[in-house]
Protein: Phosphogluconate dehydratase
Organism: Pseudoduganella lurida
Amino acid sequence: MALHPVLEQVTARIIERSRPSRGAYLAHIEAARIQGRPQRSTLACTNLAHGFAAFPANDKLILKEVKKPSVAIISAYNDMLSAHQPFEHFPPIIKDAVRDVGAVAQFAGGVPAMCDGVTQGQPGMELSLFSRDTIAMSTAIGMSHNMFDSAVYLGVCDKIVPGLVIGALHFGHIPAVFIPAGPMTSGLSNKEKAAIRQRYAQGKATREELLEGESQSYHGAGTCTFYGTANSNQMLMEVMGLHLPGAAFITPGTELRDQLTAAAAQRAAVISELGNEYIPIGHVVDEKSIVNAVVALLATGGSTNHTLHLPAIARAAGILIDWDDFNDLSAVVPLLARIYPNGDADVNHFHAAGGTGFVIRELLDAGLLHEDVTTILGKGLRNHCKEPFLGEGGKGVVFKDSPAVAGDDKVLRTAADPFSKDGGMVKVEGNLGRAIMKVSAVKVEHRTVEAPALVFTSQEDFMADYKAGKLDRDFVAVLRFQGPRANGMPELHALTPALANLQDAGRKVALVTDGRMSGASGKVPAAIHVSPEVLAGGPLGLVRDGDIIRVDAATGTLEAKVDAAEWAGRTPAEADLSPSHVGMGRELFAMFRNNVSKAEEGAATFPLPSPADSSADLHDGKEVGDTMPGSDEDFLVKKAP
């Protein structure tokens, strides 16, 4: 199937736009590579002795001989996060599995993992976005010992997987395999959960009833089963070729989950510099794989958080993408999945209907994904149009072709018969800046709202007016001072049930904010991530109560209908943000708030790779590999066993 022309055009402009920084990145990771030898071969004897002092005798011998690969384990385990609790049991499985292929695995480091579900609407949520870059830094600390020839990364949830990927890309010469924990089994349906939340917001359900409903929904180990940022992460890892095929949505505590973990660990050893084929993550994640990730996000109605995370991931690999790229691809990528909040099904139902392999095959066959990419399995994304099963006797994993027909066409459809002809995520812009709208769950009649502005500086102010009955009217809520510089860009889900109730009552309502709504963005039109934010000179600071605001997803318009002369003469609003800068550890994150890039650049705090810093010899005069060309084409180094 020929590539769709828009896919080709977007990819070509990303390659051209990224040429200097991508070339610098490739040169940098090649300078870090030690060709044909273990990474630890450059360590002095005392360094190496420290690196294996506590290890079992046989593992210590392998590490001491400096001939076989050492696989790093970087884990986001903690037992408060349901999605990450299963990782407690993964390191022994990984260590045993790599021993079977003659390698050693070492637990290199843990990274923090916070739950947005716990911190939602709380002060801790103001650390959430910046936890991504903290995780990347923590990953770098674990990998900085230079003991490792390959790595496995254990993570699932919102900022955690993007942080791990960013950290791994800063060690781009090291192969990487990502290992998920899988979703919890299905509980209370997402539709019922949403209904209880709306009744509670109306005062028609008690707190005890709300808590019982939430507990029936989030009830066990594994990822939350709605299609928010956590499960969007897993879809992206699959289409970028960083998972084994179909690994994302196998529930924890099952034999297949354990066998997939073992197989992934062994694959990490095989693709190290000392294995039969060398596949570093810096060449798996290239311009084409980033475009593939955007397409898969759009085709499945994934989280708007990835309009932040994918640009940040791409920048870590020297690749520059922007919201124009998302917008242009969204116009031609069909919506193939209906998973809550874009439908009633959960990810277990999605997996049973055909899952990730089905989606990848449909998009490949429609010319909407690049097939000629490198994945952890080698050349070609077609290798990932599979789903896993237990091998003979319940041991090992075998991969079979994904089903030709979806098991439930209310959940999953072909590219020829999609739920929608577009991906349901659009860029809007005008005199209020640039923003993202996710409209795949918004009915067509609600996608354009023109109404007077009501301006707020916090979720609490909005909710106070709602509870006081002051919002029973048509309006556009302008919630500002919610960007990364202001208060860390928290998610604003406290507003969702209230706005939904007003919309259901026949009011025309919309939200415009420089904050986030994330993967659970639902049926109310919301222009989010408005960039630049107010603290970066953004025009939301000029809006006043009563200004007529037009939010129009159909035409891509985000506009205050104010006379130009009056608009130009206004003074930006100010707000006392000090309460968001102290307490709950927020004062420790001042360096992030003071150095963060704008939302469209990923709200990142790390620099783009530069040609000026790419030629340093990282091994202090010791032999390194030959300089690689500034291209990823046909990169796959194979070695004799």
User: Anything to note?
Assistant: The first helix runs from residue 5 to 32.
